[in-house]
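Weekly modeling sync, notes
Attendees: S.R. (lead), two postdocs, one rotation student

Agenda item 3: backlog of single-chain predictions. S.R. asked that every request posted to the team notebook include the full sequence so nobody has to chase files. The rotation student volunteered to paste the first one in as an example of the format we agreed on. Action items at the bottom.

Example entry:
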Amino acid sequence: MKKQRRVKKNVDFQKAFKKGKSFANRQFVVYCLTKEDQQQFRIGLSVSKKLGNAVVRNQIKRHIRQAFHELDQELAQNMDYVIIARKPAATMDFAQTKKSLEHVLQIAKVLQRSTRAKRSNHAKMN
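Predicted structure, as returned to the notebook:
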């Protein structure tokens, strides 16, 4: 994930918290803020020290960034996403993290699944 695609400034985080809409599941809280003048989405990450040491926190952040990288084409592009990791995220592997993020982004209705992706997921379930 390129640096310009990250939310870094406290002002931007505060705007997302105040003006954005929040969606959550057990593992993550996602704040979505629409930015009309923005061409590509940006993500901001918040992982508390309560979740573990630096190694654990960095691993969670790497998993989240990679999941967003893989979902790049399916996400609404003119948005800022601020993701807050909750305690269960500390014990999840990458596949579980991606699945959980997909779930919360579908709740937020910012994940546009292609019909091909829906069919392949349906085939896996059956």
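Discussion: group reviewed the output briefly. The beta strands are 21-24, 28-34, 42-46, 79-85.
Action items: rotation student to repeat for the remaining queue; S.R. to check formatting next week.
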